[in-house]
Amino acid sequence: MSKKKSETTLMDNNSFTVELEKHLRRELGTSPKRATAHDWWQALSLTLRDINLDQLQQSGLDENQEERHVCYLSMEFLMGRLLGDALMNLGLYETAATLLQSYGVRLSDVLDQERDMSLGNGGLGRLAACFMDSLANRNIPATGYGINYRYGLFRQVFVDGYQKEKPDVWREFGSPWETCRPSETVEIGLFGHMEMDHDGNNRWVPSKKLFGVPWDITIPSFGGQYVNRLRLWESLVGAYPIDLDKYNQGEYLEACRNLVDGDTISGVLYPEDSTPQGKDLRLIQQYFFTACSLKDIIRQHKQRGLPMGSLAKHYALQLNDTHPAIAIPELMRLLMDEEGMVWNQAWAITQEMCHYTNHTLLPEALEKWSASLLGRILPRHLQIIEMINYVFLNGEAKEQWGDNLEIIQKVSIFEELDNGDRMIRMANLSVIGSRRVNGVAALHSGLVKANLFPEFDALYPGKLVNVTNGVTPRRWLAHCNPGLARLLDRNIGTDWRTDLDQLEKLTPLAESPDFLDAFANVRFKNKERLARLIEKECKVTVNPNALFDVQIKRLHEYKRQQLNLLHIISLYHEMLDNPDADHTPRVFVFGAKAAPGYVLAKQIILAINKIAQVINNDRRLDDRLKVVFLPDYRVSLAEQIIPAADLSEQISTAGFEASGTGNMKLGLNGALTIGTLDGANVEIAEAVGDDNIFIFGKTVDEIAALQQQGYNPYHYYESNPVLKRAIDSLMNGSFCQHKPDLLKPVAEDLMHRDQFMALADFESYREAQQKVSETFRKPRLWWRKAVLNTARLGGFSSDRSIADYAEKVWGE
Ligand SMILES: *Cc1c(COP(=O)(O)O)cnc(C)c1O
């Protein structure tokens, strides 16, 4: 795709000013003279939203389009802040800055007023946000469907080093970006029973009704000409949420029951990441947004006057993980029970329309629902799933495997439990009901084929494919790193924003000392800015000349923040032992939230905070070692950390990180990666070349072999004195003298369990870190590698991912 970048904006300065002031007066009841920064934020956002809405009518909703409309179904959209990105996309950044300046207001202060839209946990939700951006940029008609949570991911604060969670009140008085479309409200059913009607047909009689009210957010392309939308559903019970009779009798609580119930469904985002949450409410959330979205799609299809038989020709559903997998039986139900199709026709359409993205191999993270629970909430869907399974097992499966019971039990949608209940394997349902299944990095997709679904791969050759993840260069380069963006513009032109392969043109500049200096200078400015933020948030002074070593991602044992921590302790000991040696100064930066119920992850956070406190206050180190944990990791914080990172920590146990996208964001901005051969690190290493990345640790096969022979972490502890000393210092209270036992649980887990084999990779990690320190001391060498990282990672644009989806997944 090569799109012309329009130099003209969609609105001239004059009309922009007029519109903006109109919003200030009418919506906010204020004036340019009196407006607060928050007022300006709202008025600016409303103005840009209006421009997008005007464009939307001309692009994404074109009723006559022939192309398949992509419906991206995701329980999570981690959008972050929208204003800065929108100003950049619409070419109004400078205009807005100048206008505000004339009123004595700073644009950066206005942008800081926006609360992140944190309707997601981490990588999976952020991927959905990047894909929405790239779908618009590829001019692919698309709608993102999700839930308009009242409260997004919790806000994280630290109290005495402990993580505490606070509710995320992100749209208390509404968000200027969201437009409610009450006329497109849909109704769905829940619970109830099955009934035979007089024609002998099985009918679902739900006992509870629920309304889904859509809230739309516009998603503009760069330049703003093409606009798609994100449609988020809010739940409402009944048309009359308050029972006035009861209310008048004084039964206030009872009267508001509907209000309370309806509210809970789209009330909060589950803060779980990489583990499923087996709660009724979660299943209801999944069904709620999926069913609302399918109703919405069918309504639009009919409005266009098209026959139901052609539904799959006009719409493709992409299921982001198995969270929306209930779409498969729901679509079957709609086509049969409401549209009167026979099974085979409905099944052909369903299988043609659905596509499923797998995000994890962790067996404990694969969703399963108890059949009795699902049958109570969705009795008709249980019947349909049983029928899908019956047809599958007695048809394709029997033909392929005969009576091989072991395989039949493995591919069955149902897993029989000893207690008589059955579990529904949502992944098996998704594979059987989809036209394509994709993993999210080459290594991961290979493992999906070889380890997770080998039987399905044999049964359906070509169904399982790979689409490597990507990140949008608009947000993760142009917007978050304006200094680097200007440097790129001056040297390779401006087209890289929509054609990231243009970055290749930087390759010869890696040999130019002047360019390396300019590149290093941009980084230095970014590090000064981050240092100010660290000072403000953590009350720690850091030296911008030090190596900024960054690990930012959810806190999870498989991501191994604990391995990073052990290395930090070993560096600390080394500096104390040899105070006069020439140590490379380092600042370790962490950002990570732990799921509230994940005890060990929270203990690791505590350990990092406690160790940071001791190290940061140890005068003997002469400020050569600092550790900071920035609270409340989120998109807008990532945007400030990434441009300032020298080293990107991607140190998961090989075989456990499906792809990672943080690795791409950091590498694109010129951070060097220290990482294992896991997820997309493998492809990143291929792209940048072995000399420009620090790879360490056991491979997938070596990890598997170690697991096979029985992993014993204690062996590593005993035989490596550096490691032993680090763990002992966690055990003996060196970092928390008032409560010497405080960090024992972390130490004991490492010595005796260490599920993700941090100890097995420790020595290799430490050696790689020594190479990092040596390289950082040779600036020419370091900056050459950094430039080559930026130059060679253009392929990790989500524009490329979306082109791959269009070709390998949604295409023929
Ligand atoms: C990119 C991103 C992630 C994913 O990071 P990984 O390192 O790939 O796990 C998580 N959270 C936020 C806020 C992000 O921006």
Automatic annotation (TrEMBL):
Database matches in Gene3D superfamilies: Glycogen Phosphorylase B
Keywords (A to Z) from UniProt: Carbohydrate metabolism, Glycogen metabolism, Glycosyltransferase, Pyridoxal phosphate, Transferase
Origin superkingdom: Bacteria
Annotated GO MF terms: glycogen phosphorylase activity; pyridoxal phosphate binding
CDD domains: GT35_Glycogen_Phosphorylase
Cofactor: pyridoxal 5'-phosphate
SUPFAM superfamilies: UDP-Glycosyltransferase/glycogen phosphorylase (SSF53756)
Protein name per UniProt: Alpha-1,4 glucan phosphorylase
